[in-house]
Structure formats: structure tokens, C-alpha cells
Amino acid sequence: MEVWNNFFVATASAAAALTGLIFVGVSISLTKILSIPRLPDRALLSLILLLMILVVSLLFLVPKQPYNLLGMEITVIGLIVWFAVSKIDSDILKSTKRKYKNHYILNLCLNQIAVIPYFIGGVAILTINGSGVYWIVPAVLFSFLKAVLDAWVLLVEIHR
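The structure corresponding to this sequence follows.
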């Protein structure tokens, strides 16, 4: 697993930096964000995705961690995050006006595409050892993509 260290160091660093930027951006525009329904939840979703990248990356960097323990950790965290993201998305979708529902369904799908590979990767690490890490790569990439899209909305689009 040591061949992946650079990847996970880079993703942990980037996730931590982006998390900090989102906190700063949200704090600067807090009044505006709180005034728009569902936007605080969207901010929370982007923070959850970035935190997931950070935690998973740090778990992969633990020295000499057995594959079965790493697989269990990733699987459990993946399930918890999937449940939390699904619950938040479901609540947002229920409160979204009819004319915006299709737009939010796309948003919901992007969240699922970002989160589900973590769970699959965790199970794959448990069952086929190191090869499961290849599922973590798209999870990280889609999580970054979705978090950056949400950050754009939180920092730029709300001021239009």
C-alpha cells in the first residue's frame, strides 16, 4: 500500500485546504447562505464529502495497517456517510419546489456517485485486498468535483 502514499498525502492535503476555504467562504457569506432555503444543507454536504476524503486518506496512511481492518473502516465509514448524505439529499429534495426538482435530482445523483464507491472500495479491500483501492480513486475524484461545484454555488452563485 506504500505505493499509494503520495496519492493519499496529496488528497488529504487538498481536502483539508478546501475544507478550510469552504469554512471561510461560508463564514463570509453566512447571512446570505442562511437566508436561502436548503443552501446550508448543501454547504454541509460539501463539507461531508471533503471530510470523507480527508478521513479515508488518513486511514490509508496508517503504517502497517492490515487490509481487513482498513477494509472494515472504509466500509463502515462509507455506509455512515452514504446514509447521512442520502438523508440530507432526501430532505432537500422534499422541500425543493417542483420546478427545481429535476435540477436537484442531478445534484443528488452526483452525491451518490461520489459516495457509493467508498463503500464498494471498502468491501473490495476486504475481499480482494489491495485491489480495492482502485475504487477509492473515483470516489475521491467525484467527491472533489461535487464539493468544488457546491463551493462555487456557495461562494459565487449566491451573489448573482
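The chain has a mean pLDDT of 91.
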